[in-house]
Amino acid sequence: MLGFLAADRAFLAGYDAEIQALEAQVAAIKSSISLLRAARRTARQRLRCYKYPVLTLPNEIIAEIFLRFLPLYPDVQPLLGDLSPMRLTHICRQWRDIACTTPQLWRAIDLNPKNVDNLPTILEGTLALTDLWVSRSGHCPLSIRMGSQHDPLSILAPLIPHCNRWEHLTWRLDSTRPLSWIRSLPLLKSFDLEFSTSAADDEIVVLQDLPLLSTVILDDFRIPHIILPWSQLTSLTLKWIYPGHCVSILQQTTRLVQCTLLLGIADETENDFVNVVLPHLETLDVQAEDDIDANFFQCLVTPALHYLCFPEHLLQPNPIQSLNLFISRSGCHLDKLLVTEASVSQNAYSNAFHYILDVDVQEPSDSDFESD
């Protein structure tokens, strides 16, 4: 009996010793935890006071960096995605506030269908997003690119009340009818219009109240159905236009400085052209199908011309002689001459026009005639 008591007392003493040791360890752990928690509080306080270098910049500098992130105005950016200013609003609260209060970020709006695939499929979603951009753009002039696969007037609904701010407009249409609602675009400087179908459209649209319009790009045989203030233009591109219609327009564009032409199949009635004098034209780039009458080129008088590009067949049967006559008649001083689809050698042109600094002659390519 006494032996059992002695053994239990020994066990109890051992248990007490183990408990005391564990309690000492627990006390040490609690002390370590307290020290770690204090160190953590100190680190958090330092982090709260820490400023990332980019966030120490003035808001005006950050806004300027944001503007450099986007394509150069008037190039447009998609409504959503990595190249959209919407992405800048997802970084932090400060960046969101700066982006939302920088109107220049929201002034170039792309409504081209290929760039709205990720938007809500319902029309209301696109309209709401467009309306958001317009509201954030403040009073800035707007650059707009519009596709043709939606009802154009519906998509443009949030923009129509702000048409007095439209500065650059690129529009892809199926017909001229949507243009008929345009009455006045007081800030419009450039207008790029292309028709997505070749269906005939007999409706003629007159757009004359465009006081600042200076640059126009038109792409389709329906160009004659659009009447613009031609006399004030300084840059003009006409693609797939009949030569006769082209001459009729060029007669009115006396202020042109730059002109690019893509001439389509000539009308059988277009044989003789009246002279067209373009006193300020400096750059002329002409492309044409093989059967275009050379008379078209010979009707032009361009005394200020410095750069000329044309396919050789426009000056057949004797391109060097015809070009010499054109230069003499115009009285121009060319700096650069580019002849495409040429059968006459580079040396022949260089020798005949040795006074032109840069003469480049390109032989015909194996591919069929294509527009740019």
Structural description of this entry:
This protein has a domain at 229-372. Helix content is 31%, strand content 19%. The chain contains nine helices and 15 strands. The protein has helices at 2-49, 59-69, 93-100, 123-136, 152-155, 243-250, 295-298, 319-330, 346-352; strands at 108-111, 142-146, 166-173, 190-195, 205-206, 215-219, 226-227, 235-241, 258-263, 276-277, 283-288, 300-301, 307-311, 336-340, 358-361. The protein is elongated, with a radius of gyration of 36 Å. The termini are far apart.
Distance between the termini: 113 Å
Order of helices and strands: HHHEHEHEEEEEEHEEEHEEHEHE
The side-by-side strand order for the widest beta sheet comes to 1-2-3-4-6-8-9-11-13-14-15
Count, helices: 9
- Which stretches of 5+ consecutive residues score pLDDT under 50? 115-122, 367-372
**Which structural class is indicated by helix and strand composition?**
alpha/beta
Strands, count: 15
Shape: elongated
Q: What summary fits the major beta sheet? A: 11 strands, parallel
Mean pLDDT: 84
Pfam families: F-box-like
Organism: Favolaschia claudopus
Coiled coil: 12-39
Domain F-box: 55-111
Quick summary of this structure?
With 372 residues, the protein is of the alpha/beta class. The chain has helices at residues 2-49, 59-69, 93-100, 123-136, 152-155, 243-250, 295-298, 319-330, 346-352; strands at 108-111, 142-146, 166-173, 190-195, 205-206, 215-219, 226-227, 235-241, 258-263, 276-277, 283-288, 300-301, 307-311, 336-340, 358-361. The chain has a domain at 229-372.
